[in-house]
Each structure stands twice: as C-alpha cells, then as structure tokens.
Amino acid sequence: MFVIAGLGNPGGQYECTRHNVGFDVIDILAHMHGISVKKLKHRALVGEGFIGGQKVLLVKPQTYMNLSGDSLAEILSYYKLSPEELIVVYDDIDTDFGRIRIRKKGSAGTHNGMKSIISRIGFDDFPRIRIGVGRPFDGRDLASFVLSKFTNEEMKEIAETEKRAAEAAEAIISGGVEAAMNKYNG
C-alpha cells in the first residue's frame, strides 16, 4: 500500500493558499480515481482506493502544517509501512514557481511541515514531490507569503502544476521514483 500525503492547513481561510497545494493535489487524485477523502482517522482526512492497480491511502493531515508529522507517524505505525511507501506532496519556495521537483529522500530544508514529519517518523528517505510556489518579495515575511492566496494570473499556472504533481504521484506508484524523476524533473 502507498500513502500519498498532501500537506496543508485545515479550514476555509487556507483554501487556495500557497501552503495548501499539497491538499489540492490530494483533491485532484481523489477526483481522478473516485476516492472519497472524508473519513477522519489518525488526525487526518483519509480515503482508500486504487491507483495504477495499487492500494493507496490519500491523506490530508488535519494537525496544521507544523505538526504534520504527528498524523503521519500514526499512519505509518498503524499500517506498518516502509519509507518508500510514503509519498509527501508539499509547497516549496526554493523550487521555481510552477515547477515540480521529485526527490527520493532529503532534508526538510526550510519547510516546517517536512521538519515535523522527519522528526516524528525518524527517517528522511521517502519520496516527495515539491511544488514551486514562488518566493516572498518586497521584504514580505515567509509565513505571510506562504499563507497568501495566489493571484489571478498565478491561478491558471498553479492549477496545471498541481495536475502534473498528481500525475507524478501516479508515476511513482506505477513505475518507481527514478522513472518519475526522469519524466517530471528538469
């Protein structure tokens, strides 16, 4: 089984913000594969289904971004999953806007949600899909930037990026991380 976790913050005020692109990708995957992500379990909204013939659990942690690891630690422990069975999708200010980057493993960088996950699960060798959401400008602080909504001009491009990120998650499941990296990075 694969767990695909999209990071974000619960609540309507966070919809369409840069920090919630992970949630958006989960919604896209749920729609594409007819999976309902409405069951509250392990402090997350979850939905079970199949992608590419593989059983998946789509996850939207409800612990708020900075405590995402609390929910995912529970899920990994409950299902006794290995690192390669976890795929995390999240926003990244260090990836160019509108681009995605797939990695097999790595540090959390400046992302507090990823810091929480790595700290709580005790390893960093799991696939992740980073979505470039731009960088703060005009001296704006990072927190207010990632919690801001996309401009109208950015919305169309980020919607396409989120769709590619969903396809990248499917590619990881069906063909492995290396094949997905070769197709979507670059």
Question: Overview of this structure, please?
Answer:
This protein has six helices and seven strands, in the order βαβββαββαβααα. With 186 residues, it is α/β, with parallel strands linked by helices. It has a seven-stranded mixed β-sheet with strand order 2-3-4-1-5-7-6, with helices on both faces. The longest helix has 24 residues, at 152-175. The mean pLDDT is 96.
Query: What is the rounded distance between the termini?
Result: 28 Å
Low-confidence stretches: none
Estimate the helix proportion, in percent.
25-40%
Rg computed from alpha carbons, rounded to a whole number of angstroms:
15 Å
Q: What is the global morphology?
A: globular
